[in-house]
């Protein structure tokens, strides 16, 4: 039962990952990100998701230290994710990138390390490096981000370890049914970035109707839909009231009919790049 912020899913290697966390994409390095992370931890969040390319790992690390202190918890109670950026792909350079991320974050280990994008011809060597980090117990879990089915199949063909997580763009306008089914069959935990479609869904009439019926916000309805779809979700916010509001989704349930209504908004529409067609 997903009944609070600390409720976890169990990855296929037995590691527990919270269903809900804070994303910090486009959150500015310095005070802004420190405050957001610290606030989230003090309000009960236990999962924080960053990436090398966000250029805010140092602030995230500082927010973690302050948050741990204020909440009176240990580092072990948190689940911290970062990602290797495309420019660092390759075996040796990925190992170096991992150490750089740890240093910036001021951490001894990461709970989850992801390949950020499926750069053609490069992600397999990068995956080998992640497997090394994992077998050497320097990271608790490894996975990928923005991988389509064919990318996953390609990695798994030569991998000794199946990715534990695939973090992709996912929201009511992009429901990724086939990819979700494939991940489920292969015990790969599906995780959503941009769950609120960067705010574009907040004025949707159908969603407003459902929200009104529950006395909730549209954001809360979407995030609850994620949870009931067994999708890990990491909405980004820097405002304290929004950080609290986003997490207030454990005290109600969407009916099967409402779930269906939300899923029917799908248009295969992206706000981010298509993993088959990006140039960075």
From TrEMBL:
Q: What one GO molecular function would you report for this record?
A: oxidoreductase activity, acting on the CH-OH group of donors, NAD or NADP as acceptor
What are the binding positions for substrate in this chain? Answer: 116
Any Pfam family matching the protein: Aldo_ket_red
Q: Where is the active site?
A: 54
Keywords of the record: NADP, Oxidoreductase
User: What Gene3D superfamilies does the record point to?
Assistant: NADP-dependent oxidoreductase domain (3.20.20.100)
* InterPro entries reported in the protein's UniProt record: AKR (IPR020471), AKR5G (IPR044500), Aldo/ket_reductase_CS (IPR018170), NAD(P)_OxRdtase_dom_sf (IPR036812), NADP_OxRdtase_dom (IPR023210)
* Domain spans labelled NADP-dependent oxidoreductase: 31-267
Q: Which domain of life is it from?
A: Bacteria
What are the site positions for Lowers pKa of active site Tyr?
Answer: 83
Q: Which PANTHER family match?
A: 2,5-DIKETO-D-GLUCONIC ACID REDUCTASE (PTHR43827), NADP-DEPENDENT OXIDOREDUCTASE DOMAIN-CONTAINING PROTEIN (PTHR43827:SF3)
Query: What family is this protein classified in?
Result: Belongs to the aldo/keto reductase family.
Protein name, UniProt field: Aldo/keto reductase
What does the organism's lineage look like at the top?
Answer: Bacteria, Bacillati, Bacillota, Bacilli, Bacillales
